[in-house]
Write a structure and sequence with these properties.
alpha/beta; Aspartate Aminotransferase, domain 1; 2 domains; 7-stranded mixed β-sheet; 35% helix
Length: 397
């Protein structure tokens, strides 16, 4: 009989020649279990997706209840669906007035596509500024504002009129001019290994966009929903974007994204042409039901407040590890830097063997990615410590 592993490699299109090949049986809380019964503490949360851990009862119940009521009925925006409306209303309670109109989509990449289209439509301009080593997704528009040429060159030509500047460099902001439709940027560069910028820089970003009339698009697809110690990372810097992008954890474990702006800006997509952006499955009612339950859990329990103390405790553990050159962190978003790709990959394999589910960064393969669930407890951290010690024992052999 053909095994599941054999079917996986025969029928499922692969993203690399070396997948992890762990057969998943179930996942609960901060744990993943394979078909052999081995447990792994999930230190990457599906790449910043499962902020409430896996299979949270309230989210599962919301999904089951909505699936039993109705699933897809019509393309997004044509009929009134309670999960979409209630999610939008609750989310807007935690956003400034300038960000009070939400367009639901399927994913982070589509949120980027919608945000870029909206900026062009509102400003009438075509130039897009982005950052070196930025990651915004893999569709053609999102790829056009990816800041790594080695990932772009195989798919050219891409969108014209895009320019890359250095992240965190105030002098480079002069490249944002009256010709610029938008500056798209991550509050924390994720795939570049958790790189942050000063509050002075962010204030300068906002001033330059205001001065030139360019729209500021903040990609909070990884940083949103409490990951950095605030519900949204822009709250750390005292700025408000013109367009906010959400996905990953936003969906509570189901596919969901959004681009968010003012009602006046969003209205531009309704005419000349009508249906300026449209999606069949965006804002799927089951995904929105999961997202609503997820957002209620986070906001009612102020779970973003757990990100900093849990992150600090984990940082202490990783700084003590041999071979670690630095730890870069904001809340529960962390990069453990080894300064060498082979050393990092070797340690990642040891971690997985020891029952710690781990990953690295696309543009920073010398660093280990740490983005666990916001529900991480003291007991979980103690278990992580024990499994790190097991990994280090293996590492020394």
């Amino acid at each position: 009989m053909t095994s599941l592993l054999e079917k996986f490699h025969r029928y499922v299109a692969q993203t690399s020649h070396e997948p992890l090949d762990i057969e998943i049986a179930r996942a609960e809380g901060v744990y993943i279990y394979d078909t052999a019964g081995k447990s792994y503490i999930d230190l990457i949360s599906g790449i910043s997706v499962c902020n409430m851990g896996h299979s949270h009862p309230a989210i599962v119940q919301a999904v089951q209840a909505q699936a039993a009521q109705y699933m897809h009925v019509m393309v997004y925006g044509e009929v009134i669906q309670s999960p979409q409306v209630e999610l939008a209303a609750l989310l807007c309670r935690y956003l400034p007035e300038q960000l009070s109109s939400i367009f639901f989509v399927n994913s982070g990449s589509e949120a980027v596509e919608g945000g870029l289209k909206l900026a062009k439509r509102v400003t009438g301009r075509r130039e897009i500024i982005h950052c070196i080593n930025a990651y915004h997704g893999s569709t053609h528009g999102a790829l056009s504002v990816m800041g790594c040429n080695s990932y772009r060159k195989a798919f050219q030509p891409l969108l014209p009129g895009t320019r890359a500047i250095r992240f965190g460099n105030i002098d480079d902001l002069q490249n944002i001019t009256e010709k610029t439709a938008a500056f798209i940027i991550e509050p924390v560069q994720g795939e570049n290994g958790v790189r942050t910028a000063s509050e002075t820089y962010w204030q300068a970003v906002r001033r330059q966009c205001d001065k030139t009339g360019a729209m500021l698009i903040l990609d909070e697809i990884q940083t949103g929903m409490g990951r950095t110690g605030k519900l949204f990372a822009f709250e750390h810097y005292g700025i408000i974007p013109d367009i906010l992008l959400l996905a990953k954890a936003f969906g509570g474990g189901l596919p969901l994204g959004a681009f968010i702006s003012s009602p006046q800006n969003m209205d531009s997509l309704t005419h000349n042409p009508a249906l300026g952006h449209i999606t069949t499955f965006g804002g799927h009612p089951v995904s929105c039901a999961a997202a609503l339950a997820h957002l209620q859990l986070i906001t009612e329990n102020r779970l973003w407040e757990q990100a900093e103390p849990a992150g600090k405790a984990l940082e202490v553990l990783f700084r003590k590890m041999p071979g670690v050159k630095a730890v870069r962190r904001m809340g529960l978003m962390m990069a453990v830097e080894f300064g060498d790709t082979n050393a990092n990959f070797s340690m990642c394999k040891k971690f997985i063997n020891a029952g710690l589910f781990i990953d690295w960064f696309l543009f920073c393969p010398t660093s280990m990615r740490i983005v666990p669930a916001l529900i991480m407890t003291h007991e979980d951290i103690e278990t992580i410590k024990a499994r790190i010690n097991l990994a280090l024992t293996e590492y020394k052999k």
